Each structure stands twice: as structure tokens, then as C-alpha cells.
TrEMBL record, chain A:
GO terms for MF: 2 iron, 2 sulfur cluster binding; 4 iron, 4 sulfur cluster binding; metal ion binding; NADH dehydrogenase (ubiquinone) activity; oxidoreductase activity, acting on NAD(P)H; quinone binding
Gene Ontology biological process terms from the UniProt entry: ATP synthesis coupled electron transport
UniProt name for this protein: NADH-quinone oxidoreductase
PROSITE patterns: 2FE2S_FER_2 (PS51085), 4FE4S_HC3 (PS51839), 4FE4S_MOW_BIS_MGD (PS51669), COMPLEX1_75K_1 (PS00641), COMPLEX1_75K_2 (PS00642), COMPLEX1_75K_3 (PS00643)
Domain 4Fe-4S His(Cys)3-ligated-type residue range list: 78-117
Keyword Iron-sulfur on entry: yes
Required cofactor names: [2Fe-2S] cluster; [4Fe-4S] cluster
UniProt entry keywords in alphabetical sequence: 2Fe-2S, 4Fe-4S, Iron, Iron-sulfur, Metal-binding, NAD, Quinone, Translocase
GO (cellular component) term, any one: membrane
Xref: InterPro entries: 2Fe-2S_ferredoxin-like_sf (IPR036010), 2Fe-2S_ferredoxin-type (IPR001041), Mopterin_OxRdtase (IPR006656), Mopterin_OxRdtase_4Fe-4S_dom (IPR006963), NADH_UbQ_OxRdtase_75kDa_su_CS (IPR000283), NADH_UbQ_OxRdtase_ferredoxin (IPR054351), NADH_UbQ_OxRdtase_Gsu (IPR010228), NADH_UbQ_OxRdtase_Gsu_4Fe4S-bd (IPR019574)
Catalyzed reactions: a quinone + NADH + 5 H(+)(in) = a quinol + NAD(+) + 4 H(+)(out)
A Pfam family of this chain: NADH-G_4Fe-4S_3
Family of the protein in this entry: Belongs to the complex I 75 kDa subunit family.
UniProtKB/TrEMBL annotation, chain B:
Family: Belongs to the complex I 51 kDa subunit family.
Organism of origin: Pseudothauera lacus
Catalytic activity, as annotated: a quinone + NADH + 5 H(+)(in) = a quinol + NAD(+) + 4 H(+)(out)
GO molecular function: 4 iron, 4 sulfur cluster binding; FMN binding; metal ion binding; NAD binding; NADH dehydrogenase (ubiquinone) activity; NADH dehydrogenase activity; quinone binding
Function: NDH-1 shuttles electrons from NADH, via FMN and iron-sulfur (Fe-S) centers, to quinones in the respiratory chain.
UniProt xrefs under SMART domains: NADH_4Fe-4S
GO biological process, one term: cellular respiration
Enzyme Commission designation: 7.1.1.-
Name of the protein in question: NADH-quinone oxidoreductase subunit F
Amino acid sequence: MLEIEIDGKQLAVEDGSTVMDAATQAGVYIPHFCYHKKLSIAASCRMCLVQVEKAPKPLPACATPVTAGMKVWTRSEAAIKAQKGVMEFLLINHPLDCPICDQGGECQLQDIAVGYGGVTSRYQEEKRVVFNKNLGPLVSTDMTRCINCTRCVRFTTEIAGEMELGQAFRGEHAEIMPFIEKTVDSELSGNIIDLCPVGALTSKPFRFSARTWEMSRRRAVSPHDSLGANLIVQTKHDVVMRVLPYENEELNECWLSDKDRFSYEGLNSDERLTTPQIKQGGEWKAVDWQTALEFVANGLAGVARDHGGEAIGALASPHATVEELFLLQKLTRGLGSGNVDFRLRQSDFRADAARAGAPWLGMKVAEVGELNRLLVIGSFLRKDNPLLAQRVRQAARRGLHVSVVGPTADDWLLPVRQRALVAPSAMVDSLGQIVVALAAEKGAEVDALLRDRLPAQAGDEARAIAASLASGRKVAVWLSNLAVQDRRAAELQQLANEIARLCGGRAGVIGEAANSVGGYLAAALPSAGGLDARGMLEQARKAYVVLGAEPDLDFANPALTRAALGTAQLVVALSAFDAESLREVADVMLPVAPFAETSGTFVNCEGRAQSFVAVARPQGDTRPAWKVLRVLGNLLALPGFDYQDSEAVRDEALAGDIATRLDNRVGEIAPFAVVPATCERVTDVPIHFADPLVRRAPALARSRDAAAPVARASAATLAALGVEAGARVRLAQEGGRVDLAIVADDGVAAGCVRVPAAHPATAGLGAMSGAISVERI
Amino acid sequence: MILAGCDGDRSWRLQDYLARGGYAALKKIVAEKIPQETIIAELKTSVLRGRGGAGFPTGLKWSFMPRSFPGDKYLACNSDEGEPGTFKDRDILRYNPHSVIEGMAIAAYAMGAARGYNYIHGEIFEIYQRFEEALEEARAAQLIGQNILGSDFSFELFAHHGYGAYICGEETALLESIEGKKGQPRFKPPFPASYGLYGKPTTINNTETFASVPFIMNMGGEGFLNLGKPNNGGMKLFSVSGHVNRPGNYEVPMGTPFAELLEMAGGMRGGRKLKAVIPGGSSAPVVPAGIMMDCTMDYDSISKAGSMLGSGAVIVMDETTCMVKALERLSYFYFEESCGQCTPCREGTGWLYRVVHRIEHGLGRPDDLDLLNSVTANIMGRTICALGDAASMPVQSFVKHFGDEFMYHIENKKCLVPPEVQYAGSQIYVSPSC
Ligand SMILES: Cc1cc2nc3c(=O)[nH]c(=O)nc-3n(C[C@H](O)[C@H](O)[C@H](O)COP(=O)(O)O)c2cc1C
Ligand code: SF4
Ligand code: SF4
Ligand code: FES
């Protein structure tokens, strides 16, 4: 610790701190532009100049290391003079077009100019004009306003991992621009809007629609991935206008993924379902709530009476709230059915009977930075969970070694030290080899449950991964979406657990959705003897309740889902959107409130329950789903549906200590034989199609991540299949076929074809993993 | 010294250099395993000061390198020479490239550096090629490379050419440029001696600085110091340009009277009267004739006259010079060459240029001189690198010493020096309107 003095205040700061750090600690504000606590130091804007004892010149606080006994004055005459001098320079070429600038009212330049700027300008020469750049559908530019602080450049390079922006040209001609003919395509791109201290980078979807002071702001939690990013939702006249990050150092820090930031546009989509509707004689009719609810209650009661409760199945989205999931399972069980599930894209449920608790990340999100070895299994990490990927990226800069097992080798913009690029069906074997190698390396015994199922020996890749993990101090082994959705997810979990155990690390599951942990805690799971998400569709039920999901896009097997729902006697859909594939199969659609229009709770991947309130009034006749389910419970005269508010539901659902309910351990599971296939399907769920809300956000739909799906296979696989790169092919699986273009991508494991799910173009297909045939057309 | 005996047409060849006594110092050091400390002590005694502009004592700079640091260490030679008026380094490389190679090899030995780069200005490509040839010769003769002269001392030296940006001569911008990045100065600290090329300890010296090293080793630090005057050791190359009869490089002992240097350069062209001199490259403050004629050419004397010896580029201006126009040209240079990184320089250099340009074009305003002084004061000392200061000092000194000429321009919307007089001096047509 070093003793120093800032503006007469004595304080002790850590060695290696800068004057800016010390000032922050002392609660002293130093004006700044280029400095940002999460970015490297540029020391270029010069706004933070301060006076330091014995220094002949003012020094930039952001870059000046503190020394013992240093005396700093941030508001002395010399300091203020320097700061005002810099302010004048920043303003001479600035257009000062605040009245037409979207940043007005929330502009650092404007704010600091109030304190340090002159009343009139001494600059009477011509001002600089900089042409705007096309950065894509999300970020709008007014580059004449740019003050060249390079925050955006450093963000893309350091946080997003790819230098998508740079400062070209010299001197006064310096300009921030993307590479020629390129846009900014990072899934984190929206953060440069927040970082830009002026109105050079603003939100394309939001711009010109409201002033910051006209909007009310409320906290919320992202309904998308499992990180649980904290949001500030801004509304005007009950319409959500914009979403910004709410800083939470333990989760999203000060960042948001583009999905978190721009998905709100989907709330105002034309496809919103705003009145209850009933299908009569093949025609959809808008009805009042009373009619609709009675229809549903009578219908469900009728099926239960005629066919038994187990003829009813309930399928809910993992993006639904704890309260919704809890009431849905309660309702279903009340009707005498144990058929409830929220894991709609999963296909292996053998672990259910053997689970010790709810699968979770196995650690706090904030602890990712401390890891020094990590094995990620079956993942599209950057797209599955952009902010978790960002944390891994930062940790990798500090020495974290990342190894990967899985069928794809997408660029995560972070160094992957070892990679086993294997087909989904080979992942179990691959992890088994790692277990073998690790046990040898550590001289340890393998768990008895696994011993007989392991491969005889480990290959080079497995040994390299094992060696990397064995040398770690803080190790984690994560199963990501593709692994969890795999046909042998149970074995993968067992093996991941064993790998973690052998190297003294922690096993974890990243989780597909905002409430992937919460669904377990809310007991939205089949009862013993009940049917899971797959069973309910394979053994068609007479009636289904579908909450927040679309048959074509949110299930592991769209063909199977359509078939099962299509033949049911009654399908009740609770949905915020009037989706085509729901219209086809449902008999009644109840408009329920999406994100932002309902209170609720999500439990994120680290087991953190985060509750939120509604920030906008539900549109039209929409009602919060938890209220709808409560009324249904009442109409059906089921006990225990007399909740006053959603908090009461939450308290019941999450009673007790959540931490004690999280556990990734799995006991003995029945073996599963994989039928070998000539060609295997690898399925990703593209980030901007993953759930009903995000797929209706128009700006995101124009992003690179929302490009129309193509099939991908390695050049060698293409050759073996006898198709050319770029050709159109017919892809066929049990249950359906589609035509798609196929491209060469050597990042796909041999013998595999990668086909995205969650898109109408591929909804005609079957299961997300397993055999697929490819034929040229 | 450096250019002595380089009159023939093969002076750049290894054979010629050896004949002039070249590589004797390196051979001796390697053969006798002279301790690193001894070499650095000798340099300190010589009071060799950096020839790149800042005049920092070279021995001291070398002593900052963590010699015993086990990892990679680098050397960089700054041959970027972009400062208007300066054209000495290219002549050293053109006529005596081996002196630089030998100097760098000795430096590498003294600082334990295994790799060096000579960063050569992009617009003198034939000199870059000549240096590459010299490197080939030296490599073939085992004077650089692995196990130099059969010893266990190894030093790899490479030539690297820039693309002509002045800012790449600033030492940390030069390092960025070698690393393949945009040439922009780094904020210091950390200094290159601890965090330099690729983040490793690095020493950067000017071409002439390195070229002086073998001579110092041969004649001893004391001998070199005695060539010049106390605190201003040795010989120095002066690039004399402007209104003299014989512009060119003159290598003279430190402390040579300016009048003598002017004489060597053939005196004033057309016998005209001296008006002003910029004694150390375009970044140095201008000195009016009267003061200049009393100066000797060394760091201390020029600094007493309110300017800097800088890189030793002596720009001589006679009475036909319009000082407003001269400053306009200089300000344009800095405006164009600012890297654009830091606010005061990026925005300020354009402002300075536009105001001077306005004055020159008859659009000056009465308070423009105050404005210029105030803008320069707001730039100086507040930037990342010294380019901000370099852009400001000419403006301040021109306004200080030739304020009346500027005022005349502002009030009369034309030059104090009539266009026809300017034409007589420069043979460049000057429109009567300015
Ligand atoms: C804008 C700017 C340009 C510079 N250009 C050169 C140059 O062309 N050559 C040079 O040797 N030094 C140049 N310098 C000085 C170098 O930064 C550095 O001080 C010098 O190379 C150190 O070598 P020395 O100690 O041998 O002089 C420049 C400095 C600045 C600020
Ligand atoms: S665009 Fe904004 S963030 Fe980027 S350099 Fe300019 S002012 Fe800074
Ligand atoms: S002073 Fe000028 S040249 Fe130097 S770093 Fe700043 S902007 Fe670049
Ligand atoms: S904030 Fe310190 S220089 Fe920009």
C-alpha cells in the first residue's frame, strides 16, 4: 500500500494503482473520456490531466502510476487550466449539434462541457466533417461527432476479441472505421453504443424515438441466456423503448449481448397475440378471457375425466419464469398428470432418476476469472452465452488454458489450446479417453460406475487435454448446449463429473436458457412414472398445454412435435405471440405477458434467483401467465391456487436454500447404444433465433448472426458425400426433409453435417442429433 | 569523423571501411572480452549525447537497460529522419553504413541485446537497399549474426523500412511500427528500457549516435570529449540548408562558432543579409540573426540562445524570407504529421495551421497572435509525445521574434517583405496578394 494525498485527502492505495484509481477510491471525480475501467489505458484524450507535486507538466491521471508520498491536485488552478484547455480542443471540431443528437442528455461530452467548456468558441475556422460508416443494423454512426477516444476500438479488440474497428489516417484526418466493406458483427457490438462518450455511435433501432429524460427506467433481468444479465428497461407511455445494461460486476459487468439489448423490439412485433382466441370449425375467433378460460378448464377437465389425467401433457419454455413453471406443474399434477417438462430441446432424460440435484454451472460466474484450466464440451460458447464467453476470453488473457471437445470449431476469439473435433456420437468416447488419461496421469482410480464403460486407451488429443487439466490449480469442466441436447447427455454429464473429480475441479452445466436452473427448482419435471418432454411427444397425449414455445422452433424434434400436437384432441397454447406453427396445432391461444410485462423470477446458471417486476403494461388483453394459471387452477377447483401475488408463488417454489438444491452429480444410468450413421447431424441454435421474443426483433434479424441457415460440412465430408460446396442439397431425417445450400466448413467434425435449428427453413427436419442423409438435387 | 575519408565511390563497402580502421573496436571488444560496464563507462566519459534530437546522454541511457535480465532484449536504430531540414542520417547510411552496424553491434554487446532493427525512413528506399547490402557483407564476414568473429557473442541485425510518416521517428511509435501496428507513440512510463519492442527491454538511438560509438571506442571517451567542449563531447553533423551557397552536411567539432559553419557552407547566397536561423531542425525555436551569430554550435550555447541543437539541422533564412509564409509551411507539416492520438495535438495543430494560413492570406485578425500563443500554451506539455511541443515551439518563437511581421500582415493584408524581394531570394513566384 502507498500513502498518497489527493486534493488534501490522505489515503492508502494499492501498489500499481493509477492516480485515476486512487481518485475513484477517494471519491474524487476526474473528468475523462478515453479512460474506461474495463479497457486498456489509451491516455490519449488528455481530459484527465491533473497537477502532481514536483511534476513540471500536468499528468494524465488515468495513466500515471501512484508513487509513495505523491501529492495530487485535481482541481488546482493548473489542473483546471489544463482540463479546460483540452475541453476547448475537443469542442472546436465537434459539430455541437446536440438538439438533433440522440446522445443529448446522456452525453459525457455535454456533461463535462458544462463544467469545463467555454461559453463561446474561439475557433472560427472551418470544422471537420467525417463521413458516416455502415457498422451494420444495430449501431448507427455520426462520425463527425467522434472525439477519437478509441474506446470502441479497444472494446472490439479487447472485450469482443476481434478488432472490428480501428483508427485510420493521421492527425485531424483520423477516423474510426471498420475494415473496408465490413460491418461490426460481434454478438456484443451494442456495447460500443454505451461506451461511446458522445453521439458518434448510437442505437439504430432506438434513435430518434425518445429522449432519455422522457423515459422511465426500471430494472429487469434478461430472459434469454443463462447468465441472467441485469437490465435497465426504459419505457415511454408503457412502450419499451430501449434496454441498457444495469451494471452487475458479478454477472454481466457493464456489458450486454446484442440479444439482451435489442430483443425488446420483439415486444412491439405485429405478431403479438393480444386477445384470447379459440379455434372453432377450423376458424380462429377472438373471445373474451372468461370464455377462453372456461373453454380451457372444461377441455382439460374433460380429457382428464374421459382418458385419465396422464392423457394430459404440459410443455413449457425454459425462458418461462419460476412462477409460471411452478404453477403449470402444479396445475398439471392437480389434473392427475405427472407429464410436465420445460427441457424442450433436450432428448436424453435418463439421468432424471439418478440426479442429485439441479444441474448448474458449478461455480459463480464471477469465479470464471480465477480459472486456469477449462474444458468446454459440446459448445457454441460465443453464441450460447456471449458474456460467459467474454469472461473466458479475459481469463484466457491472464493465462487460462481452454480445451474443447465437440463437433465444431467455431472461432470463439480466444485461444483454444487443445481441441478434440469429434462427431456428437463420439463425444462420450472422447471424454472417456480423457478420463482414462487423467486417471493414469494422476494415478487415481476411476469411479466404479464408469470403469467398465471406458475405452481401453487414450489417444493423443485426449492425453493432451488430460495433461492440461491435470496441471491446473482451478479447473472447470463445462457441458454446454450441444452436450445437454445430445442423445447421450447423461453419459456426458457422468464423464464430465468424473473428469472434474479426477483433476480436483468443478463440473458445470452452462444452461440453455434464462431459467434452465429455475425449471428444476420449480419442479417443472415429470413425476416418477410421468413422461418427459420427449416421452410426451413420442407417446402422443390427448391434451397438451404449451407455455411460451412454438412447435416448429423450440423443440428438439419439430417433426415429432407437430405430429403429436397435431393429432391431440386439445392443445392449449399460452403464448405472447400469434405464431403460425401454434395456429396450426392449437385449439385455444391465450395471450400471456412476455418479458417486461410480467413480474417473475429467473434462476441463472450459478443458482442466483433474480426477481423482477413488470416494467410495462401488458399489451392489449394480454395477462401475466402466472395469473392465467392461477385462474385456471381456481376454475378447476384445484387446491392451493389462492396466491395473492407472484412473490407468494416464488416463495413457495423456491422455499429453502437454493444452494443445497444444486448438484451436478448423477448416479447409475441405463446404457444406450448409438446406431452408427454414415452422416450425423450437428445442430446449433442460432443466437438470434433461439426464443420466440428474439426471433421477432427486426434489427437483430438483419444481423450477421441471423443469416439464413445453410448446411455445413468439412471439405472431406462433402467429397465423401459426393456434393460440391455451394450446392443445394436435400437433407432428410426420420420425420422430414428440407432443401438447403451446403457450404464447406472444416470446423465441422468429419462425417457430420451442421444444420441450424430454430428456423423455419429447417423446421421440417427431425431430431437435433442422430443420422441425417444428404443428397444433391 | 563519421564521414571522414568517405569521398571515394566505394566508401560504403566493407573493404573500404576496414581500410579506414573499421570494425577494429568491435574486434577488440570481442577478442578481449571487454566488460560491458567498461564500454558504458567509456561512453559516459565521452559525454556523447543523443543525436536524434533530445540530446539525452547515451551512456546513461545504455545503463538503464537491465543488462542481466535473462529474456529478450532489443536495439533499435532510428533512421527515420523525417524532421524538416535534417538529412544527415541518410548520408551516414549512404556513405558509411558499416559505422552504424559496428556501433549497433557494440551496443548489443554492451547491453546484452540479441536482436536489433534499423528503422529507415520509407522515402529513401535506395538507402534502405544499400544498408541491406552492407548487412549482407557484415553477415558474410561474421561481424553480425551467430557467434560473431568466432566468439560466443551473437547479434542479429535487420533493416526495416517505414512508409515515410514523421511520427514513426518518435521512438515508441517506431517500436509500434516495427511490430506491424500503426505508428503511434506510446504513453510513457513504462519506458522502452523496461517495456519496449514486443514488450521487452529496448534501447533506441539515432543513426549518428550509433555511428559515433566505434570512434569513441577507438579514441577513448576522453579523446572524444576533447574533440568538442565540456558537456558537449565530440563531433557533430550539421545539415545546413536554406539560403547558403553550399548547403550540405558538415561534420564539425561541437562548439564550432556558427559563423564558421556558415562560412563552410559558402556563406549567404547572393551575399544577402542573414535574417534568422532554425538551428536544430524544424521543431526548434527560430533564432534571429543577431543572436545566432554569437552562438557556438553545441547543446549549451544554442539552448542559452533560447533554442535547441535538436538533430543539428541548420535552416538558414535570409532577408528575403517572409516569416509568416515560413511558419505557415512549418505548421502545415505538423498539422499533417500529427498522429491524431491525443486531443491537444490532433485538434491544436490544425487550429494553428489554419490561423497562420489565414494571416498569410490576408485574413488575419488583431487578436490572432494572442490566440496563437494561447493555443500553443494549451498544447505544450499536455500531449503523449513531443510532437505537440515540436509543433508549438516554431509558432511561439516566430511570433515572439517576428511579431511585427505578423502584425503587418494582419493589418495590411500583405507581406512586409515585398513579393518581388521574396522572388529574388527564393525564385519562387509569390502572388502579390499575400
Ligand atoms: C515527433 C518526433 C519525431 C522524431 N523523429 C526522430 C527521427 O527521425 N530520428 C531520430 O533519431 N529521432 C527522432 N525523434 C527522437 C526520438 O524519439 C528519440 O529521442 C531518439 O531516437 C533517441 O535517440 P538518441 O538518444 O540517440 O538521440 C523524434 C521525436 C519526436 C517526438
Ligand atoms: S466513435 Fe465514440 S467511442 Fe469510438 S472513438 Fe469516436 S468517440 Fe470514441
Ligand atoms: S502529440 Fe501528436 S503525434 Fe504525439 S502522440 Fe499526441 S497526437 Fe500523436
Ligand atoms: S482519460 Fe486520461 S487521457 Fe483520456
